[in-house]
Amino acid sequence: MGKDRVHIFDTTLRDGEQVPGCKLDTTQKLVIAKRLDELGVDIIEAGFPISSPGDFNSVSEIAKLVKNATVCGLTRSVKKDIEVAADAIRHAKRPRIHTGIGTSDSHINFKFKSNRDDILERAVAAVSYAKSFVEDVEFYAEDAGRTDNEYLARVCEAVIKAGATVLNIPDTTGYCLPEEYGAKMKYLKENVKGIEKAILSCHCHNDLGLATANSIAGVINGARQIECTINGIGERAGNTSLEEVVMIMRQHPDLNLDTNINSKLLNDTSQMVSEKMGMPVQPNKAIVGSNAFAHSSGIHQDGVIKNRETYEIIDPADVGVSESSIVLTARSGRAALAYRAKNVGYELTKLQLDKVYENFLRFADQKKEVVDSDIHKIIETSDVNLAS
Ligand code: KIV
Ligand code: ZN
Predict the structure, then answer these.
(1) Ligand 1 site residues, Cβ closer than 6 angstroms
(2) For residue 372, which of 324, 328, 306, 321 has the smallest C-alpha distance?
(3) Ligand found nearest the CA of 229
(4) Which ligand is nearest to the Cα of residue 138, counting in written order?
(5) Distance from the alpha carbon of residue 239 to the mean position of ligand 2, in angstroms
(6) Which residues of 77-107 are buried (b: 16+ CB within 10 A; e: fewer)?
């Protein structure tokens, strides 16, 4: 049986780029958009066109450039926003307007100083207006994570009637637990009339480190789109990380879910975004961190040298990393030293290795990491007869 397709909606250039310090110019955004298209994302959220003339220009140029993905522009539930977004994406092969409004009580009472009925009317009006420009209209219920399910279902039903093709259920504050977020999706699937006409979408923030877990709970419970960013960049603690959700679905065939992503481009795309945005990737970041396939303790190194799968659940080549690395530190064992020594040209006998290892430990205690040039030094000063 074929797997169910989960659409990947990349918002690196919108939710990701709104982070202080991550701002890009149009040329940089075009390079990233082209790469996202090659990577196989289904939707590129190119920006928030009304926010500035520069952002309008970027969205418009991306709309002209992108060949395969849908190009989407964000709006508030405001007529002018929608008109400007429609103008910015008018050259896209597949244009989408992403409009919405806050639906939680705190958004309704404090941000809008309004009431539930008024917000529902504004949501419907925004979707209907967006629909007069494009066929594909996504609606977001901002702070859906803290919105009462019954009211959220009412809003969803009304915007589907108005023509929404996708319903975005953002956990804007990163508050939900995976069970809770999954149950919200299930509730909407079971209680919204007309839900079969729309795709439910996960949009999770990472304030409690749960964005990836929540998005996966969302798709397990019926959502078929995940909104995410490269390296998980985004407001505050960030958004769901694209590379993580893609590889979770790949590595768990039992979920019966997959995406269109060419995972071999993940590592390179991560580095490209990190460099362009000046946002370093933490070394222990899942999938794309520099330590994601590095082994440094003796026990693990011995296992990986015998068989990679003892300590690796992903083949590094599948995400564009040429090979796992065996890092030499004072915690490394003989097997790792022999392996790295062989890589730089020394085939050591057992006796030679014992001698070199003693010298290695003395050296390694003084350094964070022992590199190739150190290995030469260690072997040459180890009093071993290399000819024997
Ligand atoms: O986090 C959020 O709620 C958003 C919406 C604007 C989609 O980014
Ligand atoms: Zn967001």
Answers:
(1) 15, 140, 142, 168, 170, 172, 203, 205
(2) 328
(3) 2
(4) 1
(5) 7
(6) bbeebbbbbbbbbeebebbbbbbbbbbbeeb
Distances in Å between the alpha carbon of 40 and those of 74, 224, 247, 289?
21, 16, 14, 21
pLDDT tens, residue by residue, 139-164: 999 999 999 999 999 999 999 999 99
State the closest ligand 1 atom to the C-alpha of 227, by its place in the atom list counted from 1. 7
User: Strands 136-142 and 95-102, how do they pair?
Assistant: parallel
Mean pLDDT of 218-242: 98
What is the rounded average pLDDT for all residues in the chain? Answer: 97
C-alpha 173 chain-centroid distance:
17
Quote the ligand 2 centre to 99 CA distance (angstroms): 13
pTM assigned to the model:
0.96
* 313 CB-contact burial (10 Å; exposed 0-12 / middle 13-18 / buried 19+): exposed
Task: Copy the structure tokens of residue 135.
Answer: 């066929």
- Complex ipTM: 0.99
